[in-house]
Amino acid sequence: MHIKSYPSILYFGTPVALISTKNPNETDNLAPISSIFWLGWRCVIGLGASSQTAKNLMRTKEAVLNLPSVNEAEAVNLLAKTTGTNPVPQTKLSKGYRFEENKFKIAGLTSRRSETVGPLRVNECPVQLEAVVKAIHNLAEDDDTQRGKIITVELKINRIFLHKSIIMRHNPNRIDPMKWKPLIMSFQEFYTLGSKVHNSVLAEIPEHLYDAYDKKLAEEQ
Questions:
Q1: Any residues with CB less than 8 A from the CB of 95 and at least 6 apart, and which?
Q2: Its pTM surpasses 0.90
Q3: Cα dist. 84→45, 67, 88, 180 in Å?
Q4: DSSP string over the chain
Q5: Per-residue model confidence as pLDDT tens digits over 90-134
Q6: Residue 82 CB neighbours (<10 A)
Q7: Which residues contact 123 (CB under 8 A, 6 or more apart)?
């Protein structure tokens, strides 16, 4: 039996990402997000338009999407109620946010230089995706109250770094789903993937048949 419901949050289970961007003073901003999905070598993320990450993306058009595993959950928590915006916006103050400039330090994370963009990679994250902004769209343009407050950002992946511990044996271009334990956000709580529940007919399709044009471009860089 279904009942009519009005949840405040519709995060039914999406991966957490730590997105690194460059601040105007060249310091490094690092923010956890979980409004994110991929198609090919393109990624779409959702952000509050007033966030420091959004401002940095609009200005520099560059980022690194660092995907934490279950082992980095505490580091994500240490960043969760911080912002690179000073003064802290009232909407975030009411939720307990505070201003922090050195995000890597407070989270106990170390950085690695990127190859194709200015923002730094998070060394501890098993997946690191260097990306450039290709489009920015306003969300809820149909509503006077929400217009201009939320944006979606389309990112093109330029370079991918994977930790050896999650790579499929004998194939450096495939992630082993049995080894990769991403940090998942579901209704404000942390989870991860469990055991395989059923065979998938899509798994019968060779992965290389999904190769995107953007992947070919990245290989040529």
A1: 81
A2: yes
A3: 18, 20, 8, 30
A4: -------S----SEE-EEEEEE-TTS-EEEEEE--EEEETTEEEEEEETTSHHHHHHHHH-EEEEEE-BGGGHHHHHHHHTEES-SSPPHHHHTTT-EE-S-HHHHHT--EE--SSSSSPEETT-SEEEEEEEEEEEEE-TT-TTTTTSEEEEEEEEEEEEE-GGGBPTT-TT-B-TTT--B-EEETTEEE---S--S--GGGGS-GGGG--HHHHHHHH-
A5: 889 999 999 999 999 999 999 999 999 999 999 999 999 999 999
A6: 21
A7: 109, 110, 111, 112
Q: Using one digit for the tens of pLDDT, what is the confidence trace for 140-178?
A: 999 999 999 999 999 999 999 999 999 999 899 999 999
Which tokens hold the place of 155? 């990112």
Structure tokens at 99: 């201003």
